[in-house]
Design a protein that fits this description.
This protein has about 775 residues and is mainly beta. It contains five helices and 51 strands. The protein has a 22-stranded antiparallel barrel. Strand 18 and strand 19 (about 245-255) form a beta hairpin. It is globular, with a radius of gyration of 29 Å.
């Protein structure tokens, strides 16, 4: 009887196989018409079955379908949807080019093929087209990626003009910023007022606020993934721009047509040149920054591509004063980033794609002071540095239209120099105090699967295993990740996610505003790695006809081993001496505790059409608790902001005129301010048994930590662009106004004496009034 059942099952299986059609794979690269720039995240859909996939970060796609006449649709926002029809009877290589849509009459074609957020399993992702960022009015006319991201719900700025990111209650140190796979440790120019990213060199921008895929790790709050352009493979193109404080230039084109291309993009301020004529002859003062992006890509063959990219940037502030020939004094502060990435794409077969990256990153800070008063001389040099050498290998596997599997690993060697001090003087022998370098190794392996369980259910599940070794200490931690989507209707989805993250690097700072003097150090046996767990739930509604998307999300995040800084701690010179002569290290100056952040976010967004933009609203709470701070009680973090609103609108009146505007509102930050001040008299023994009395003024009582709220922040910016297209070029003139209605937003507060009131009063310092700016751009 058992043998009969086995024979019956065998013949049934053979019959099923005979009746099923064979399956074949269509794969290839998706590029842009006119430049052959690789296009990531393009939707590929078979219309009849609604089976589909998405191109990866390097424009490669793969989809396996049954033998039949196949009709594929390729769609991406801002590009004309392309339809390809073919008979599939073997594995087929199909490279596709998409054309940018410039005709407003054909706009409905784009809308019909636009990818829907309700289809994706991933949630808590921010995507802003680079071209849209260039149309948003900005401070002094400098278009800034980070400032644009700050306008999204769940992302807040720290203070007026700051380019720091505070994502769902996390600090600036809890954001992993990647530029072509290379981490950037300080993303700020001009003490935080501008970011280091030049939009002319960028191809794509993605910010993950939660539900992190397993391929990312190393920070608690967010991942900002930026990809540079590859360079035009068909013709030379360029762009130059002049603004109030900086100029920029970009050039790209083929080295070998259709085979090898390059792109170079550079930017520099001329603040130092503008103020030089107004300085007295005996003084020297200035500030400038520059940055440069460069990339070369080479198509080795059908299965191999090489990319070499780099970023180099530096800020320098300097000041000097000359009294006489023999009496001089000067000081400087400079910092900068350098990154380099060598990437190798290899196609094993039509279903398996790999990317191998070799990564170098360096962040360097230098402070110098020279004093000359002959015959006396004094010189001080302080440096701080972090250098990374890394390798990363990721695989993309497309076994079935319902599965997109990613797996791989990476390892990074960190070399830290928290501080190195050199002091020379005529009164003393040469003194060199240099800290021993700290070294660590951070590694991880991961696997994730974007799996379509049914037409309604889709999940992205994965796990990341991280390892960190430093100072004879080893940490090994699993990080489970899960995102899921359930479709209520064709264009409404419910989504949920959970993610655990570990952070093994700490940023030492007692300012909280991301100055270049902040120092990176590794986790140790005494200072544990930070850890967070975040859960989120939300809903997405797509309006296909109008190209609107509405997203509502709620989240809850709990963090442990969060770094806190003891009151009065200073990390500019890391070591100090206690009264008993023992050395105090940075580990003695920090404490660790817990953090809670929760809230809700609302976003309505439109990316395509004559009118584009978004409205975002965030309601959130962020609290911290340390046993050694605020008497062990919970308190609101400085970057806690109850309400945050942003409105962004871009309207193309016609081909020649574009209007844009933003309005932002945010509840005041939580800070510590003295509640009362009083004088104290001290008595010291004197001769004859008497005492000397000395008054000590301005003793202040601060009460609970961060118990004072700054005034709400709000601001409106507007801009207008005039486009003029000529035969071989385009000219763009832009006029914009930052803080249009001249709102005096608080930058910081202090207590000052008022003679008219005869008492101390609270005073506010504001930074930027209404600021007009003009810029001119030339494209060829």
């Amino acid at each position: 009887m058992n043998k009969f059942l086995w024979i019956l099952l065998f013949f049934a299986a053979q019959l099923a196989l005979a009746q099923s059609k064979p399956k074949y794979t269509i794969s290839g690269y998706i590029t842009e018409v006119g430049s052959k720039e690789l296009m990531p995240f393009v939707n590929v859909v078979q219309v009849s079955t609604q089976k589909g996939t998405t191109s990866n970060s390097y424009g490669f796609y793969s989809i396996t379908l049954e033998q039949d006449t196949v009709e594929l649709y390729f769609s991406f926002i801002g590009y004309t949807m392309k339809k390809v029809k073919l008979y599939l009877d073997k594995n087929t290589n199909l490279d596709v080019q998409l054309e940018t849509e410039g005709k407003q009459l054909d706009e409905v074609v784009i809308e019909a093929g636009a990818p829907k957020q309700s289809d994706e399993s991933q949630m808590s992702v921010v995507e802003i087209p680079v071209e849209q960022i260039k149309q948003i009015p900005a401070l002094l006319g400098e278009k800034d990626v980070i400032k644009a991201i700050q306008l999204m719900p769940g992302v807040q700025k720290g203070s007026e003009g700051s380019s720091g990111l505070y994502v769902r209650g996390g600090g600036p140190d809890q954001n992993l910023i990647l530029l072509d796979d290379a981490p950037v440790y300080n993303a700020s120019h001009l003490f935080g007022f501008f970011s280091v990213f030049n939009g002319d060199a960028l191809k794509s921008i993605e910010l993950y606020k939660g539900g992190f895929p397993a391929r990312f790790g190393g920070r608690l709050s967010s991942v900002l993934d930026l990809q540079m352009k590859d360079g035009n493979k068909e013709k030379i193109k360029g762009e130059a721009g002049i603004g109030l404080i900086a100029s920029r230039f970009t050039l790209e084109g083929p080295i070998l047509k259709d085979k090898c291309s390059f792109i170079v993009s550079a930017r520099r301020t001329y603040i130092d040149a503008l103020i030089y004529p107004f300085l007295p002859k005996e003084s020297k003062f200035g500030y400038f920054f520059y940055d440069m992006n460069a990339k070369v890509n080479y198509v080795v063959g059908k299965k191999d591509r090489l990319f070499l990219s780099g970023y180099f940037g530096k800020d320098k502030f300097y000041a000097g004063y000359k009294i006489s020939k023999d009496d001089k004094e000067k000081v400087f502060l400079k910092w900068g980033n350098a990154t380099a990435t060598l990437r190798w794409n290899h196609l094993f077969n039509e279903k398996l794609f790999s990317n191998t990256s070799f990564i170098f990153t360096n962040y360097d800070l230098q402070i110098g002071y020279d004093y000359l008063h002959k015959p006396d001389e004094f010189t001080l040099r302080y440096t701080s540095r972090i250098t990374d050498y890394g390798v990363k290998m990721n695989f993309d596997y497309f076994p079935h239209p319902d599965h997109f599997v990613r797996f791989g690993g990476q390892s990074t060697f960190h070399h830290f120099t928290p501080s190195a001090l050199v002091v020379k003087g005529t009164d003393t022998d040469e003194q060199v105090q240099k800290k021993d370098a700290l070294e660590s190794l951070e590694s991880a392996v991961f696997i994730e699967d974007d799996w379509k369980l049914s037409p309604r259910w889709k999940i992205n599940g994965g796990i990341r295993i991280t390892h960190f070794a430093t100072q004879k200490v080893n940490y090994l931690n699993p990080e489970p990740r899960l995102s899921m989507r359930y479709k209520l209707t064709d264009d409404i989805s419910l989504k949920a996610s959970y993610a655990m993250m570990n952070q093994y690097l700490h940023l030492l700072s007692n300012t909280g505003i991301g100055l270049p003097t902040d120092l990176w150090v590794p986790a140790t046996a005494r200072v544990k790695p930070q850890r967070s767990q975040q859960g989120a739930f939300g809903a997405v509604k797509d309006f296909k006809e109008k190209n609107w998307t509405i997203t509502v999300e709620g989240y809850y995040k709990h963090s442990t081993n969060v770094i806190g800084y003891r009151d009065g701690a200073s990390f500019l010179l890391v070591d100090d001496l206690a009264s008993n002569g023992e050395t105090i290290t940075w580990e003695d100056n920090v404490t660790q505790g817990q953090g809670w952040s929760y809230g809700g976010e609302f976003l309505i967004q439109k990316k395509v059409g004559k009118f584009t933009g978004w409205v975002g609203y965030t309601l959130s709470w962020t609290q911290l608790q340390f046993d050694e701070l605020n008497f062990g009680k919970k308190y609101y973090a400085r970057y806690d902001r109850r309400h945050d609103i942003s409105v962004v609108g871009i309207y193309k009146i016609n081909k020649r005129i574009t209007l844009s505007g933003t309005w932002v509102f945010g509840s005041g930050n939580a800070i510590s301010m003295p509640l009362q001040s009083y004088s104290v008299t001290t008595h010291t023994p004197a001769e004859g048994g008497t005492y000397n009395s000395s008054p000590v003024f301005n003793v202040q009582d601060y009460g609970a930590k961060n118990s004072f709220r700054m005034a709400p922040y709000h601001r409106m910016d507007v801009g207008i662009q005039f486009h003029k297209k000529l035969k071989r070029c385009e000219r763009i003139f832009e006029l914009s106004f930052y803080n249009l209605y001249n709102r005096k937003n608080p930058f910081y507060y202090y207590i000052g004496y008022s003679p008219t009131q005869n008492k101390n009063v609270l005073r506010q310092v504001s930074l930027f009034p209404i600021l007009p700016s003009v810029s001119w751009t030339y494209k060829f």
